[in-house]
Design goal:
This protein is of the alpha/beta class. It has a single domain, classed as Roll (CBS-domain), CATH 3.10.580.10. Helix content is 37%, strand content 20%. It has 8 helices and 6 strands; from the N terminus they run αβαββααααβαββα. It has helices spanning 3-6, 19-28, 49-56, 59-63, 73-76, 88-91, 108-118, 137-144, and strands at residues 12-14, 33-37, 43-48, 101-102, 122-127, 130-136. The strands form 2 sheets. Strands 1-2-3 form a 3-stranded mixed β-sheet. Strand 1 (12-14), helix 2 and strand 2 (33-37) form a beta-alpha-beta unit. The model has no long low-confidence stretch (mean pLDDT 90). InterPro entries: CBS_dom, CBS_dom_sf. Pfam families: CBS. This is CBS domain-containing protein. Keywords: CBS domain.
Amino acid sequence: MRASDLVVPWPTVTMSTPALDTTRILADADLPGLIVVDEAGAPFAVLPGTQVLRLAVPSYYQDDPNLTHLVDEAAADVFMRELGGRTVRELLPPQPHELPVVGPEATALELAALMARTRSPLVAVVDGGRLLGAVTLHGLLDRVVPA
């Protein structure tokens, strides 16, 4: 089984896409992450939904989970407002990581190893510089886990 057998169309965002728009895309389509593309439409990064939460949830709550119990429900329900006017550029980690990108001939094992190594729930599939879509963890497991 090859990446070309598992690839599905996938939405993309750019570095200048507003962070709140990104969260709407993730939520509306129940996606684990998005592919960030550069000006030429080539994959620049994969943005997992958890990285969006890292920016939306103030670091003091992440560092001390006991503090979250002190916030009333009404205030806790609006934490995504922390994203304000931020962009995708601010959601990406400061250190460049290995980009989870493969060609259409990548095997299921290559996909699984890349997902594990990069801790990415999806891998972009590129052919000749053109983004074909993504292979998701869910899509990969559906095909490789015995019935």
